[in-house]
Design brief:
The protein has about 325 residues and is an alpha/beta fold. About 45% of the residues lie in helices and about 15% in strands. The strands form 2 sheets. The protein has an 8-stranded parallel β-sheet with strand order 3-10-9-8-7-6-5-4. Strands 1-2 form a two-stranded antiparallel ribbon. The chain is globular, with a radius of gyration of 20 Å.
């Protein structure tokens, strides 16, 4: 699969953009574990052109992460064009436009998936951004606003005509948020449309290597994007790549997985500070499958997620390894 001049190989697996998740450390670890391309957290066009520090920091890309995409979102042409040019100056490999975020504070203002209620403006923004930058522009969106407006088959052609070089489709509507099951049927229809010539990337409910291969085989997509299943489990990319190549899962020890989680903690603290770095990493600790199914783990889990210092958290993780995770 190619996006512009970027060759991602056959059946690439991509790390989805996720707010408060895909920070530089996590992206780099996922690349090391086998993700073929990674995406930044969502970047607000309005905040970017106002030079808000917390937003401009999201543009930082480690050379070892590449290929990497910056994803922007906004609700009007001028701000999106200006933001696109600022983002391009940060030298990403790809610029992605977010027309899929379902969060109320974004969608209710007309940005993200809110743009699915104003297709003419969505297309005008897309054309303007494509014309404003020299790097490849891609789009990520959903099936439609709700089940009465599943417009993606027509929308995909319209977006392609705007000049984008790949399209990622999340198999839910905005009204579904992240509930229910992702419907890949329409994603497959878009991919099998003979008028579609750009790569189609599927997204939604890919939580295991087996599901990854099944969806590649069944729907014929060019690439698959993995999001929530990677939170607290960056090694999922290693598992997926190995399974595609060998039909089996690799051996990844508990110690190796713990090492990755500990690295995320240290790098989060180094990037921000001790207190906020630990707050940031709690989402990964809460989601990791490494601690799921451990009997009588509730009190330890609560203590782990309440820890406020690195020393306290490190001590709890030592105890978890010694008491629960010996193998």
């Amino acid at each position: 699969m190619r996006i512009g001049n970027i060759d991602l190989g056959e059946r690439p697996v991509l790390l989805a953009p996720m707010e408060d998740v895909t920070d530089p450390s996590f992206r780099l670890i996922c690349r090391e574990q086998g993700a073929d391309m990674v995406y930044t957290e969502f970047v607000s066009a309005d905040a970017l052109i106002r030079n808000i520090d917390s937003t401009t920091r999201k543009l930082s890309i480690n050379p070892a992460e590449r290929p990497a995409a910056i994803q922007i979102y906004g609700r009007d042409i001028d701000s999106m064009v200006e933001a696109a040019r600022i983002a391009e100056a940060a030298n990403p490999d790809v610029l992605d436009i977010n027309f899929g975020c379902p969060v109320k504070k974004v969608a209710s203002k007309g940005a993200g998936s809110g743009m699915l209620r104003n297709i003419p403006l969505m297309l005008d923004i897309t054309r303007a951004v494509v014309n404003a930058v020299k790097i490849p522009v891609t789009v990520k969106t959903r099936l439609g606003w709700d089940c009465e407006n599943m417009i993606i088959t027509t929308l995909a052609e319209q977006l392609q005509d705007c000049g984008i070089q790949a399209l990622t489709i999340h198999g839910r509507t905005r009204s579904q948020m992240y509930t229910g099951h992702a419907d890949w049927t329409l994603i497959g229809e878009v991919k099998n449309n003979p008028r579609i010539t750009i790569p189609i990337i599927g997204n939604g409910d890919i939580t295991t290597p087996q599901a990854l291969v099944e969806h590649f085989d069944r729907y014929g997509v060019d690439g698959i994007m993995v999001g929530r299943a990677s939170i607290g489990a960056p090694w999922i990319f290693k598992e997926m790549k190995h399974f595609m190549q060998h039909g089996s899962l690799p051996t990844i020890t508990v110690a190796e997985k713990m090492t990755l989680l500990r690295r995320q903690i240290r790098e989060s603290i180094d990037r921000i500070d001790e207190y906020r770095g630990i707050l940031h990493i709690r989402r990964h600790l809460a989601a990791t499958p490494l601690f799921k199914g451990i009997p009588n783990f509730r009190e330890t889990r609560i203590a782990m997620l309440r820890a406020e210092t690195y020393a306290e958290l490190d001590s709890i993780l030592d105890m978890i390894e010694e008491r629960y995770l010996q193998q």
